[in-house]
Design goal:
Layout (H helix, E strand, L loop, with lengths): L1 H27 L3 E3 L5 E3 L4 H17 L4 H24 L6 H10 L5 H18 L5 H21 L5 H19 L3 H23 L6 H19 L2 H20 L2 H7 L1 H8 L5
Antiparallel strand pairs: 1-2
Helix pairs in contact: 1-2, 1-8, 2-3, 2-8, 2-9, 3-5, 3-9, 4-5, 5-6, 6-7, 6-9, 6-10, 7-8, 7-9, 8-9
């Protein structure tokens, strides 16, 4: 019980201490983006969550030899995805949007930072899945699941706190599943460090003083994908992949923000804690 608290609280404290300092550094260096209120705020500060959670993952690996390899592969993919998101945050263009747009640009011979992130993320998904898949079909499914989750959380990161709330809500489902199949040990090892970091970062995000950026939202997405690969059954993975495909198709045509605005319950959750 003690180690679960430690791998949660250490990243929480580190993020709480580091985020304002990194945000100040980014702001003074001109690494800012315009938020939905047209204010210039530091962007990509969500990278702090990833690097702070590293301490928790190292502690988890050190105290649990039986899952040490899984933890380090997980951590490698997580930090790699955050780094790719960071590149997109600082080099990305607003002219090309969406996964479909970046792939279309690549097929025309134009390489975008979003394209680099998409293909790099798929490579990380492949690397992680190779160690855990039981068959070729399972391997393909796992790669698709991780890749879609990685981008899905990013789709929600259009308002303060929204991506973090989506991550927390889906973790309730993952924890319930882990509990039902007696895999809470594995779930907590993989979820608690980044969850601790996120809970420390969320007040800054909700206040509109700093932006998570792709460095944070894509990292949260790949975590959901990798934990899903680790604990979900094959049929459940198929269901979630179909739901994620539907989400991506939907967002190519409609605005998630407009859908949330029109639904009283979704709007209540979306605006909870946000400083207006």
């Amino acid at each position: 019980m003690r180690w679960t608290f430690i791998i949660f609280i250490v990243p929480f404290i580190l993020t709480r201490l580091a985020a304002p300092r990194v945000a100040g550094l980014f702001f003074s260096g001109g690494l800012v983006s315009e938020n939905f209120l047209r204010r210039q705020i530091p962007t990509a500060v969500g990278a702090v969550m990833v690097f702070s959670s590293t301490a928790g993952y190292v502690l988890a690996a050190w105290t649990h030899e039986d899952i040490r390899l899984k933890v380090f592969i997980f951590l490698f993919a997580l930090t790699g995805m955050s780094a790719l998101g960071l590149v997109d945050d600082f080099m990305g263009s607003s002219e090309i949007k969406g996964l479909k747009g970046h792939i279309a640009a690549f097929l025309k011979g134009d390489l975008t930072s979003g394209g680099i992130k998409a293909f790099g993320g798929a490579a990380l998904a492949l690397g992680f899945s190779l160690f855990l898949s039981k068959s070729a079909i399972d391997l393909v499914l796992n790669i698709i699941l991780i890749s879609l989750f990685t981008n899905a959380v990013n789709l929600f990161d259009l308002r303060p706190g929204r991506a973090g709330k989506v991550f927390i809500l889906f973790n309730f489902f993952l924890f319930s599943t882990a509990l039902s199949i007696q895999e809470t040990y594995l779930y907590t090892s993989m979820a608690l460090p980044i969850l601790g970091s996120l809970l420390a970062f969320l007040p800054f995000d909700l206040s509109g003083t700093m932006m998570m950026g792709d460095a944070g939202s894509n990292a949260l997405g790949i975590v959901l994908g990798m934990i899903s690969v680790l604990i979900l059954s094959f049929p459940l993975k198929i269901i979630i992949v179909l739901l994620l495909i539907s989400l991506h198709i939907f967002t190519e045509k409609y605005s998630l923000t407009e859908v949330i605005k029109k639904n009283k319950f979704l709007r209540l959750i979306d605006e909870w804690g946000r400083v207006k």
